[in-house]
Write a structure and sequence with these properties.
Layout: E1 5-13, E2 18-28, E3 35-45, E4 56-61, E5 69-78
Parallel strand pairs: 3-5
Antiparallel strand pairs: 1-2, 1-4, 2-3, 4-5
């Protein structure tokens, strides 16, 4: 069974080696047939501590590292320089 891979934006550094990301997806509403956004938060293990708030990262599923942390950092897709966080 292949491991899940998610892409999201870092919203919070939740400790020394953990970041919180939000994954956004767009779905069609069943009744109103409009596109609506759905969000889900994940905790991602960042061993080197190279990720900053605002970065877009890719994470891959791994064994459970804690109660809510089951993903580890795969790569940083886009970096945000300091002072550019919206």
């Amino acid at each position: 069974m292949p491991k899940r891979q998610i892409t999201g934006t870092v919203i919070k550094q939740s400790g020394e080696k953990t970041v919180s990301i939000v994954v956004e997806r767009k779905v069609i509403h069943p009744r109103y047939h409009k596109t609506v956004k759905r969000f889900k938060k994940y905790l991602v293990h960042d061993e080197q501590g190279i990720v900053n708030v605002g970065d877009t990262i890719s994470a891959i599923e791994c064994r459970p590292l804690s109660k809510r942390k089951s993903f580890r950092l795969l790569k940083v897709l886009t970096e945000v320089k300091k002072g550019e966080v919206e």
